[in-house]
Structures are given as structure tokens and as C-alpha cells.
Write a structure and sequence with these properties.
By secondary structure, the chain is α+β, with helices and mostly antiparallel strands. It contains 4 helices and 3 strands, in the order ααββαβα. β1 (about 35) and β2 form a beta hairpin.
């Protein structure tokens, strides 16, 4: 087991500026998805609705998931209330699984 902890580098100074150059139309195709930005913010390397699936896509492409900047593109058709309700439902499922797994 490798116990060495890699220090997280600072975000490239140009990241924010480059990220802002993406138009709303360019980001619209990623609505409701997790995305992986290149370290300098010039491109989106991969996207998926599921964060774990995104990391798997990155690994399959030979990209370390820790070497990108993860983000999420909100779906403007979902209200915050819907997103919150979905998150609460997900937490309830997780707690139910943990309860079944750890109740002896």
C-alpha cells in the first residue's frame, strides 16, 4: 500500500480566466453532469452524470482523476428545491444501507 500523500498543487492562475471563456451554450451540453476541467481551464476532459463514472472515464483515458478540476454544471430546469429533495432521498438511501450493514 502506498501511504505517500501527494501535495495538491495550486490551481493554475489562468484557470479562472480560461474557464470564463466558455460560453453558456458550450456548457449547456453538460447540464446536470459532473465535469473534469483541464488544469489550465482550457478544456473539459470528460463528463458524466455520475461522479464515480466520470472518474472511471478519466482513468480509462489515462488521466489521473486527482489531476483535474472537478465541477458540476447545474441543470437550469431543476429548482434548488428539487435538487435538495433528490439529495435528501440519496442520503436516506445511504443511511438505510449503512443501517443494514452495521446493525448487529
Amino acid at each position: 500500500m502506498n501511504s505517500e500523500i501527494r501535495p495538491a498543487p495550486w490551481v493554475d492562475a489562468a484557470f479562472i480566466e480560461n474557464q470564463r471563456r466558455f460560453s453558456a451554450e458550450a456548457l449547456a451540453r453538460y447540464q446536470g453532469q459532473h465535469i473534469a476541467w483541464s488544469w489550465d481551464g482550457t478544456q473539459i476532459l470528460a463528463a458524466d452524470a455520475d461522479r464515480r463514472a466520470l472518474d472511471q472515464k478519466l482513468r480509462e483515458a489515462g488521466i489521473d482523476p486527482l489531476a483535474v478540476i472537478h465541477d458540476f454544471v447545474d441543470d437550469p430546469n431543476l429548482s434548488c428545491l428539487c435538487a435538495a429533495a433528490s439529495a435528501v432521498a440519496g442520503l436516506r438511501r445511504i443511511f438505510a444501507i449503512l443501517h443494514l450493514h452495521f446493525s448487529w
